[in-house]
Amino acid sequence: MYACICFLALSSVIHAEPELVIYELGDNLKYPLYCRVNDISKSSWKRSDVPISAGGYVFDFNKYSLDDRSPPEYNLKLKKSLLKNDAGKYSCTEGREEIKSYILIAKESASIPKHSESSIYSMLGETVKLWCNATGYPEPTVTWYACQQTRYGEKLESIGISGNMLGIRNISRNCNTIYQCQAINSYRMKKPVAKNITLRVHFFPDVFVGIKLNDKEISNSGFIFGRKKDRLALSCSVYAVPPANVAWSRDNITIGTYHHVNGIIEKSSNADNFLYGLTKALEIKIGISVTMDFTLDADNTFASYHCDAKNEVGYTRKTVKIKHVQKR
Ligand SMILES: *[C@@H]1O[C@H](CO)[C@@H](O)[C@H](O)[C@H]1NC(C)=O
Ligand SMILES: *[C@@H]1O[C@H](CO)[C@@H](O)[C@H](O)[C@H]1NC(C)=O
Ligand SMILES: *[C@@H]1O[C@H](CO)[C@@H](O)[C@H](O)[C@H]1NC(C)=O
Ligand SMILES: *[C@@H]1O[C@H](CO)[C@@H](O)[C@H](O)[C@H]1NC(C)=O
């Protein structure tokens, strides 16, 4: 007796798997959705829980009809050519029991309706997930590319990862680039659709000071020897994400500051004390270079010159000390 109850209970829980019906937009369904019932007055069709029919009555008779309305046939016919929003689950029930269900799927070229924002920010060492949630039928293939520096310039190169998500662990600065996902399926597509996602990995400024003495580059060991009338060009190259504000100062007096927000150089108001020219800031890939061009012509020009770079992550200073050597 117990066993029998159990069996009954089980049988009403186990539903048959829904049957897939694939269609093309604008097509008519060749066959109705079949369902066999015992008592039509207790039966109904629903689409995702919205009733289509109750017994012999059809709610939207422009769209649906009951094909052969005599037991055991309780078949649903879709009268119009099919649209995208006809996709979904259709189920036939009798009493409380689901007798049969169908999933209608429209064939569709791949597209990427949902994806990560076009710019993603991350800190060094973090894990990020880039998404390209492609849709379409048949199921699209998604492959990932990264824009990489090659001998021939920048090029999109395959990362060898496929799937909706590209996960990157322990982010390094080298991950700063454009990633591209491409999605394609076999339905009316020759070329994939693509989305670009730029990853910006935040890190504190890296600062390099280049020195030219009388137009000759010299290696930077922190201090240099100069004579009166020597021409000096100190260039401060800063690599930082987000971009940094860059300032040159002599000892503790600011000469000029490059503001990354508006991209202009603001020279110190007491510039009269200085004999420097600050050239226009030069933008380099993820950085900026601010050059100070001047002649060593006053005693106070033999001093310490600091390049300070500051962004939201941190602050870096590089110093060049200029020592006076007397003319022999
Ligand atoms: C993409 O789908 C996954 C689940 O499959 C979800 O976690 C993620 O938030 C989705 N991404 C977007 C951008 O919609
Ligand atoms: C993360 O990467 C850095 C270098 O980029 C490495 O030194 C460190 O060991 C890595 N950490 C982990 C947990 O893999
Ligand atoms: C995506 O990035 C690639 C590589 O930088 C570029 O060639 C392409 O024009 C970008 N596409 C769009 C839509 O921005
Ligand atoms: C720096 O500034 C202080 C006062 O603001 C001043 O006394 C000092 O002489 C300045 N110069 C140096 C090299 O510290």
Task: Draw up the topology in text.
Blueprint: H1 2-13, E1 19-23, E2 43-47, E3 50-54, E4 57-58, E5 64-66, E6 76-78, E7 88-94, E8 97-106, E9 108-115, E10 119-123, E11 128-137, E12 141-150, E13 153-162, E14 165-168, E15 177-184, E16 193-213, E17 216-218, E18 223-226, E19 231-241, E20 245-250, E21 253-259, E22 264-267, E23 276-278, E24 282-284, E25 287-295, E26 304-310, E27 315-324
Parallel strand pairs: 1-8, 10-16, 18-27
Antiparallel strand pairs: 2-3, 2-7, 3-4, 5-6, 7-8, 9-11, 11-14, 12-13, 12-15, 15-16, 16-17, 16-19, 19-25, 20-21, 20-26, 21-22, 23-25, 24-25, 26-27
Bound molecules: 2-acetamido-2-deoxy-beta-D-glucopyranose (4 copies).
The site of one 2-acetamido-2-deoxy-beta-D-glucopyranose has 3 residues, from loops.
Protein traits:
mainly beta; binds 2-acetamido-2-deoxy-beta-D-glucopyranose; 328 residues
